[in-house]
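lol forgot to send this yesterday, sorry. struct tokens for the thing we talked abt
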């Protein structure tokens, strides 16, 4: 489910923000899944459509060889043709050989490039640090002075098992907003952890969302993902 996946990725979400001090001292809402090739297919137009005007996202890619790599991009993804864009706060990460993070180390005109040909981080071909094909299923990566990164994977080219985009946001309490999920099996554990009645815990939105971000969020179904896109 989406919530299980969120808990699995929460160490990346927390660590990828540190180099840029993004959201420093802020209370974070649960990361929101914007796009997944597993649910939304491999169309690049769908990728752009679901991530448009959505800043502060984490691109997560799992390869068929079991490796994981990606990037935190403060700027929203957009179909910008051959013009680079993006913030110097862009940070790459890789699980090979251990989970490591690589913030941008050079001043460039941009750190992202995306068009009908594919998606680039680095920022331009043929020196891209990460390139992803327009079908969102193939790619390659190179060592780069732009991020002072070594090889992000044991081999240059890779095939993707899944590609996702998650948005990170500061928690903002809305008037009358409820965080209760009657189908959430984590609610009882959360209430016991706080040693309070369940109802009083559910009313405490800030604490509930904080715990969700660090790894005990709502056990949402895939339907929640579809509702996010509605």
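and heres what i got for the seq, position by position
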């Amino acid at each position: 489910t989406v919530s299980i996946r969120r808990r699995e990725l929460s160490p990346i979400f927390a660590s990828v923000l540190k180099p840029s001090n993004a959201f420093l001292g802020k209370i974070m809402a649960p990361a929101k899944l914007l796009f997944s090739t597993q649910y939304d297919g491999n169309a690049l137009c769908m990728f752009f459509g679901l991530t448009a005007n959505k800043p502060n996202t984490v691109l997560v890619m799992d390869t068929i060889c079991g490796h994981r790599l990606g990037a935190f991009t403060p700027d929203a993804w957009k179909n910008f043709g051959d013009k680079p864009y993006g913030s110097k706060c862009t940070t790459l990460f890789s699980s090979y050989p251990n989970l490591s993070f690589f913030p941008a180390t050079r001043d460039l005109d941009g750190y992202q490039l995306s068009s009908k040909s594919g998606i680039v981080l680095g920022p331009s071909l043929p020196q891209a640090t990460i390139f992803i094909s327009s079908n969102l299923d193939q790619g390659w990566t190179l060592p780069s002075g732009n991020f002072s990164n070594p090889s992000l994977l044991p081999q240059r080219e890779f095939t993707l098992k899944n590609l996702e985009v998650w948005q990170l946001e500061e928690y903002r309490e809305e008037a009358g907003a409820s965080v209760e999920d009657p189908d959430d099996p984590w609610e009882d554990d959360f209430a016991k952890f706080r040693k309070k009645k369940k109802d009083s815990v559910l009313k405490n939105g800030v604490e509930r969302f904080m715990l969700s971000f660090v790894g005990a969020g709502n056990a949402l179904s895939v339907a929640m993902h579809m509702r996010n896109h509605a």
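Confidence is low (pLDDT under 50) at residues 175-227. anyway ping me if u want another try
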